[in-house]
Amino acid sequence: MSDQGTQRFQAHGGFSVLEVLVAVSVLAFGLLSLGSVLTTGLTRLGAAPADLIARQKASEAIECVYAARDTRLLTWAQIRNARGGSGSDGGIFLDGPQPLRSPGPDGLVNTTDDGDVESLVQPGPDGLLGTDDDILMPMSQYTREIEIRDLGGTLRQVRVIVKVRGAQGERAYILTTLVSAWA
Asked: Which residues are within 8 A (CB) of 176 and not within 5 positions of it... i.e. 6 or more apart?
């Protein structure tokens, strides 16, 4: 009887040191991978508001070009960059990256009559937006470039590049569309 008891004990002897070492290694690798995914997710979550603003500011620029054409505020010849691809396109939209400024009297962004650098308005200590303690945060980390290129007599490509500088470096949001001479 003692032989059977010894055999049972040996058959249910537990894990070897090697098996424990492999199991701990697999568990450590899984936890480190999970930590990396969590870090990446939190980084992207932190950058999401800036990315949303960049997307909206690019859309705003495209809408300005369409509005200028549709309202006949500008002639077709003026819906170009000042220098542009030829070096003397003669349009009203400024070349190269520009600070995000509020539209001037013409209502268009990235033109010579633009106002001051735009600011984000955040609620102050009272938590209410629109009160005297609101916090103005200048959007100086953003730039916007409107690039207009001729594709034919009555067709142009409009490319808007909004860049934002942040803790993770510089990111760019690019929006491209076509505009024709006909409203």
From this structure: 157, 158, 159, 160
Q: What are phi and psi of 84, to 5 degrees?
A: 65, -160
Q: Can you read off the two tokens belonging to residue 71?
A: 């309202």
Residue 22 phi/psi, 5-degree rounding, is -65, -45
Q: Which tokens in the block code for residue 55?
A: 């997307």
pLDDT value of residue 7: 54
The pLDDT value recorded for residue 2 is 54
Evaluate whether 117 touches 103 at the Cβ level (below 8 Å): no
Q: Give the tens place of pLDDT for each residue, 98-132.
A: 999 999 999 999 999 999 999 999 999 999 999 99
**How many Cα atoms occupy the beta-carbon half-sphere of 87 within 13 Å?**
0
Q: Which of 88, 90, 65, 94 has the alpha carbon at shortest distance from 179? A: 65
